[in-house]
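Sample entry was shown:

___
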Amino acid sequence: MKIRKAILTGGGRATRLHPITTTINKHLLPLANKPMIFHAIEKAVEAGITEIFINTNPGETELQKHVGDGGHWGVKITFFEQTGGPLGIAHAVNEAHKFIGNDPVLFYLSDNILLGKLTDMVDDFSLGNYDCMLALCQVPDPERFGVPYFNDAGTLIDVVEKPKDPPNNFAVTGLYLYGPKVFFDAFQHIEKSPRGEYEISSIHSYFLKNNYRVGYKEITGWWKDTGKPDDLLLANELLLKEMPESTWTHSGRVRIGEGTRIGDNVSFVGPVVVGASCVLERCTIGPHVSIGDGVAISGANVENSIILNHATVSGNIRITGGLIGRHATVTQKNFSSIPLSVRMIFGDKTVFEC
């Protein structure tokens, strides 16, 4: 049972990442200078997927422009709107029924960042003839996720969404495999949760209580759900650390884009990725920094941060843990011999002066 089709998420409002996501789709935020959803697409393609269906918010256009039709990856990509508003993850999958038909499918939450390949999980699913397979990961805060419940014999018996008192520290990650038809059959039997959404955990609970074959595989590397700013920055750090040696254009694990000008007194502490057509002067960059295209930085120290395209940072300022939107301006006008140390999250076109 080979899986050739995948559903990826591209919708949602990402309110926990405001203000940076008020003007940009979360799935287009760059991690290691690559839109977040590109990482998910590459994982799916690596696992043998040939058709990808991406759900979007009603009226979305930017995601389609950046992702395209899939030709870049040698696959076919189709976009579909989640009608009726944000009715939950399970509802988004059900909306793809007309594309998936009776075929098995990979469902991938595109804001989940994973180290390692999906190939082993896909192979285990196929060989084991499962109806569903879940990926589990140990986390410090399982109450934020769907949590697997096991009986005394260690058998998986249920999945509960965001329990107040989780019985273990496992989370069900945003990677799911489903056999032919089973998801869409189960969807007819679930109801909205108290928060008004069709929960994906309700699907898995239905499977387990109705004798479907549900397998699971623990992710032993790292997995990150980028739901909060700190998660986003940590995912950026981890991806930068994992980039192969062939990626770097300069010693010290530094990559500098075409047309970028490096002025006097600029130092890097890798890993650092700098986009094209940037101007850097009298600054220290890194570690764990992703800088987009057309960014200007003068006089500042920047570490553990993501700076989007065409932002400007100037002055004797030290930014640690920053998320700075497109065309934003951060300026220190009142000079001090002691750097002003700040942590900031700014949306597009924000102007901050100090």
